[in-house]
Write a structure and sequence with these properties.
Layout: E1 2-7, H1 11-14, H2 20-27, E2 32-37, E3 50-52, E4 60-62, H3 64-75, E5 82-92, H4 95-101, E6 106-111, E7 116-117, H5 119-124, E8 128-131, H6 141-152, H7 163-166, E9 185-186, E10 189-190, H8 200-218
Parallel strand pairs: 1-2, 1-6, 4-7, 5-6, 5-8
Antiparallel strand pairs: 3-4, 9-10
Length: 224
């Protein structure tokens, strides 16, 4: 998989994208994540990328020309499955979306900043708009990092145990059941006996029941 991220603040992405699972995926050549500084495609000698909005109003808007120049340059070399804009008014990110995107080959992620991006960028280039929650961030960089992490970890070979991703919360529409490790008894707080029994059908039944119980308590909306 190839992911190209367009941003005015590359430094915000360098740490999250070069540690842990995302670093492992890139080291294994299972994924390449490329950060593109929009300012390198800015207009004029000052590399301008933003301007005041027509009609007045507070906040600067990212201009269409730098985006068009950069996106067209990328598209000359690569065919992209999706060009995704991270925005509060996009479709809410869920596990199903991450699963679907993990099957794609090439993605562009657009990070907004300031007041946002010129609407014509959305009209002409963007194929999907995604939000990571009903709140506003300073820019789309952290949202892009979240999206990358949720996608890349699902690529076969990235996780040490691929079955681990299949038992994550939301994969089956439920929250995950409780998990335990050693010691089996911590100052009288004991691991449920069923998990020590070796009876795997019964263990799976216990986990399913617990997942249903926790989902009913914490996220009853998922059961609808």
């Amino acid at each position: 998989m190839r992911i190209d991220i367009i941003t005015v603040l590359p430094g915000l992405l360098e740490g999250p994208l070069n540690l842990s699972i995302l670093k492992r995926a890139q080291d294994k050549n299972l994924c390449s994540i490329n950060i593109h500084d929009l300012k390198e495609y800015g207009i004029g000698k000052h590399r301008q990328v933003d301007d005041y909005q027509f009609g007045g109003g507070a906040g600067m808007v990212l201009m269409i020309e730098p985006f068009a120049n950069l996106i067209n340059s990328l598209k000359e070399k690569t065919d992209y499955d999706e060009i995704i804009y991270l925005t509060p008014d996009g479709s809410l990110l869920d596990q199903g979306t991450s699963n679907a995107l993990s099957l794609k080959k090439n993605l562009i992620l657009i990070c907004g900043h300031y007041k946002g991006i010129d609407q014509r960028i959305r009209d002409l280039f963007v194929t999907k708009e995604i939000s990571i929650g009903d709140y506003v961030l300073t820019g789309g960089e952290l949202a892009a990092a979240v999206l990358c992490d949720s996608i890349v970890r699902l690529i076969p070979g990235v996780l040490g145990d691929e079955a681990s991703a299949l038992s994550d919360s939301f994969q089956d529409g439920l929250l995950a059941p409780p998990i335990y490790t050693r010691p089996a008894d911590f100052h009288g707080n004991k691991v449920p006996e069923i998990l020590l029994s070796g009876n795997f059908p019964k263990i799976e039944e216990w986990r399913t029941n617990k997942a249903l119980e926790i989902t009913s308590l914490k996220r009853p909306d998922l059961l609808k």
